[in-house]
Amino acid sequence: MRLLVINPNISDDVTALIRAEAQRSASPGTELTVLTAPFGVAYIETRMEAIVGAYATLQLAAEHAEGHDAVVVAAFGDAGADGIRELLPIPVVGMTQAALASAHLLGRRFSIVAISRRIAAWYRETVHAYGFTDRMASLRFLDRPLSGPGSVQQEHRDRLLELCDACVREDGAEVIVLAGAPLAGLARSVAGQIAVPVVDGVSSAIRHAESLVALQPGAATAGSYAMPPAKPHRGLPPALARRLDAPR
Amino acid sequence: MRLLVINPNISDDVTALIRAEAQRSASPGTELTVLTAPFGVAYIETRMEAIVGAYATLQLAAEHAEGHDAVVVAAFGDAGADGIRELLPIPVVGMTQAALASAHLLGRRFSIVAISRRIAAWYRETVHAYGFTDRMASLRFLDRPLSGPGSVQQEHRDRLLELCDACVREDGAEVIVLAGAPLAGLARSVAGQIAVPVVDGVSSAIRHAESLVALQPGAATAGSYAMPPAKPHRGLPPALARRLDAPR
Amino acid sequence: MRLLVINPNISDDVTALIRAEAQRSASPGTELTVLTAPFGVAYIETRMEAIVGAYATLQLAAEHAEGHDAVVVAAFGDAGADGIRELLPIPVVGMTQAALASAHLLGRRFSIVAISRRIAAWYRETVHAYGFTDRMASLRFLDRPLSGPGSVQQEHRDRLLELCDACVREDGAEVIVLAGAPLAGLARSVAGQIAVPVVDGVSSAIRHAESLVALQPGAATAGSYAMPPAKPHRGLPPALARRLDAPR
Amino acid sequence: MRLLVINPNISDDVTALIRAEAQRSASPGTELTVLTAPFGVAYIETRMEAIVGAYATLQLAAEHAEGHDAVVVAAFGDAGADGIRELLPIPVVGMTQAALASAHLLGRRFSIVAISRRIAAWYRETVHAYGFTDRMASLRFLDRPLSGPGSVQQEHRDRLLELCDACVREDGAEVIVLAGAPLAGLARSVAGQIAVPVVDGVSSAIRHAESLVALQPGAATAGSYAMPPAKPHRGLPPALARRLDAPR
Amino acid sequence: MRLLVINPNISDDVTALIRAEAQRSASPGTELTVLTAPFGVAYIETRMEAIVGAYATLQLAAEHAEGHDAVVVAAFGDAGADGIRELLPIPVVGMTQAALASAHLLGRRFSIVAISRRIAAWYRETVHAYGFTDRMASLRFLDRPLSGPGSVQQEHRDRLLELCDACVREDGAEVIVLAGAPLAGLARSVAGQIAVPVVDGVSSAIRHAESLVALQPGAATAGSYAMPPAKPHRGLPPALARRLDAPR
Amino acid sequence: MRLLVINPNISDDVTALIRAEAQRSASPGTELTVLTAPFGVAYIETRMEAIVGAYATLQLAAEHAEGHDAVVVAAFGDAGADGIRELLPIPVVGMTQAALASAHLLGRRFSIVAISRRIAAWYRETVHAYGFTDRMASLRFLDRPLSGPGSVQQEHRDRLLELCDACVREDGAEVIVLAGAPLAGLARSVAGQIAVPVVDGVSSAIRHAESLVALQPGAATAGSYAMPPAKPHRGLPPALARRLDAPR
To answer: What PANTHER family has UniProt attached to this entry (chains A, B, C, D, E, F) (predicted)?
Structure first.
């Protein structure tokens, strides 16, 4: 099985975190292609940045999906995932979507722990879009300057654990979601230090993508996830244009 | 990996359907123990029947969980699953819960196709309990006398396909959930005949249980899924009593 | 009028509290049969315990309903109530259900005051199942070790009043629900000490059960509260089996 | 016990229907004062008409509440009920509020059957205000010219039964609410002809008002149902002015 | 363009605030008629007071609408607005409704800052009626004795700014709504001192009323905002009676 | 006042419709700059197409906003609007957002009439994102092949009117939203032929943008609509990069 894993951001150190956790999580026999966005920002925290990340991810997916069995969008917020799902006949899994699926399988009410104050609104809206707001016990976040996305989990590990603990004790969280690719792998390393199950988005996305491939649910040929209708277009990247022009 | 799969009903022919689909879905190396409820009804369609099924399933889980890595409750409605999750330190996955996770990963709005009019309320309430009501496009059901749960999918295959089709065309379903253990395996056999992805509860539950085992999210030692507090009890089956009396 | 009142737990002292409050609340001419679960736990705080309590309550109802005009399930969380409603052609009222009805009649937003941290999730899910989440201003709870359910209201009376007060002042509660059979009768004894109306689950259930009997709304012969369809069963308690086999 | 029952409309024939059903429903020993609005319209179907009815009802309540134990607002839509609850230290029950309480006690999903197309929006908004929208399976209505509110149930009885039947069969209603004072008493006369329990607003309101009096939940001295704060006013009817000026 | 602006309260000093802010906000060429309720209370804080204000506003609208292009109800809570909309073929805009429209256009989550504790429930219910509860980040309020509605913004300006600040920093508000006619104009005077956009209800209502007049969406001749059906009435103010008797 | 109006699609004929309706709607003194996306598709119907449109719109806004007082995103679905709002210190109004504001000001429940089956999911999700789902009575759509977006309203005018009529009669719509830039101006031309108010997205957006400019609510300097935090980026269009690098 081959999975295409896309970091919608330009940060190579975050891509490294994603790759490492993806490799630790993948089943034997799963091969991973891990890509970094060629343009965009270091780390998506806002709606504006998500627009850029979505377009970059869409292009990478159009260009590189060939030969893969599923696509993973490895940024919380799932920039572009829902659109790519229309474009490709294979499963597409976003990191928030995957984390929500895991949290749903582990308990009723989850809390999200995130790396910055600014990112909270974007996460909240993503959770709302998936209809999971009523299951979110709380959203807590680091409120400190970050030296960079790639080193958050080392530098702020203790504060992150405190936030997790507060979610359990004060907010009634039954599951914790450590949100954002910069925290990829942290759940694994804090095993046993948090009193409820902890969800990692990257490993969840890898595993759920594998499951969808195995379950063979079929591709959409009608409805809102079928290939978009043929229509005039202009100025699109060649790989995207080719897909839109393909016979259907 | 060893999974304990429990049919909360007394119907051996449905257990056979469950076992067959579970085996087809499981990863290499996964071993399955498949049990049938020793008491109860042929097929849970109502809240009253679910009370019986939940208690039977709880007992089986308490008695047989030892040596397994996860439990699958193989009836739509997830009779007992949420309670068993408190009792055991391993993942517990219900069939509705699993099907909803798959549907969530495949699209925004799903429809459920069920085998009887009577079962609709019970399913609707289960979906509500998980907070997925707003993502349900519709719930359609067979409205014909059934000769037995084990033969529904053969006898009513054409009508079931018509219902699926109506969900897509009239209700805007982006994913179809074929609901209930009696339909286990049907999704696989109608592949390519339905215009959107189709979800099977049994195979989803097997795969998602495997994923939770692999992801190692940790067990709850606090919050509402930790082991229930020690307290007086009376008249409980020995296996259940033993677990409640275990030191914690 | 004869009411069958079932304590889904094994605690005789709580049964005594229930009986006392039920007798104080009942209209002249109402006769009460008050039963204690023959098996189960001392006090339901979790989903797992509720599974046991539901099955015990279902059995008692099947066995003893004859000759009664309505059934009251006297535990917050309403273990088994919804299933018993399918089984019997008479009104069935749960304690949460009744308390919510009273709260709804007295104001828009209510708070629940409960006796333990662990019980909060189970109550929250019960309120959600009835669709009353948006009317709940808050849920506060004692967070202290209890010597036993039968003595909570004496031992923790002051703290309980403080919690009620906080619900009014800080959470905007317009009504307080004192939740759980161990608090039966407390509302009556704190009359005048809380600044908003206070609801007791047991007395509410008795009164509302009487009302349903008087209103004669008719029994369900179709829909999801009609008698479950005839089907094979095995190993059920005789009284339950007889009802399932009755002609309909 | 003495109940003040107010018809917020000017229609004496509807008052007669209300009085007759109220007397049939009341417990022995309950005395009823039944009043008709001195100004307003024949039958509230719209928000504008409800404004008039609310003010008329508020005046009657202020003037006549003395010596009564509870107030019943006998029009679906509960014109003025929530405001009167602030003004008086006794329970106040609206007809929709009471019908919803009964429906909640009898099942999960109810349908409303109403007497005109125009009235649907007003009922829908009232149900929304109480937070019961998610429990409403459907709202169906007569769509024919009415000769007058007092004769609707005789003239359109067969069509009303057809609507009830459609709610059960097509919409999944578990309870039917026959809505509006012009249908007062109809539930009683169609007993046994509808396959699920049927709720009458007037008898529900009488019984629930009696229950609240018996339960003695206490009056609000704080929060949003306490007496409104003292402040300048002008031009109010004397009985209302007197209450606002009373020391508190 | 001529706008009829109605203060549903008897307070002339609040009317002066409304008039001043309305004049500052209106487009060139817009003429304003500003009226004060002839009966009622100084300032609506409760549901009971809103019933009085609604009836007074309805009468003023019926009497004075002639020759105007739209009506503005200048009290938060929109007393009577929805009913007047049925009565008149011109746009009717309430102050809450307008503030919510502005907040919706400026961001996702807004907070309301109000002038008293008591008013919170009434505002909360108004927001719920419009379906905006999920977009409300918080509702904060002054909790101090007021010398009068006309001087709140001068006397409590600093505390109001602190509340706004807390909404942004602690509650995640993206927009602040300064609620209530007594705060009319405050938004303008604190420009630049609050870190997110600030909405004023009066100026929003004036502008949105002008927009609706300009957009010419047409009047309702069917549905729930069409003129109420002709029917008997009694004791209504002449202007209201005339409108109800007008041919349609 | 100068408004920047962006068509997120490449279709010049739709831009012409937008410009014409925008000019008819704008107040005297308002100047319009109307731009067409330099790349993208002819008409956004899907999430994938919206990703492309959002990025194109973001670029145009970054490049051309200078000297304008507000931005209008002239495609239903509001591709990019929420992100642009973060980037610019001036009001940004999307066409769906504006139409929802108008509908909210005109009544409680609206229906959307759209030009294709495929577009329904995208619109539904946009309405959900704004939290307006509960106020949507229905969404109906043309289900016929279109020769092109620029001629829909001429070719299918009768069918569109039939859909509007069905929304009013069958779905209880109190307001109709004619959705999509290809229908720009239709509301105006069918004035008087539909029984409830009709909302046009383009004219609503123009008017509401003007209002926000006039109301001067202030720009966000904190919270989720403040300028995104400074961080590394790569490969962005120069105008966008310049804004991200600007001192703040």
So the answer is: PROTEIN DCG1
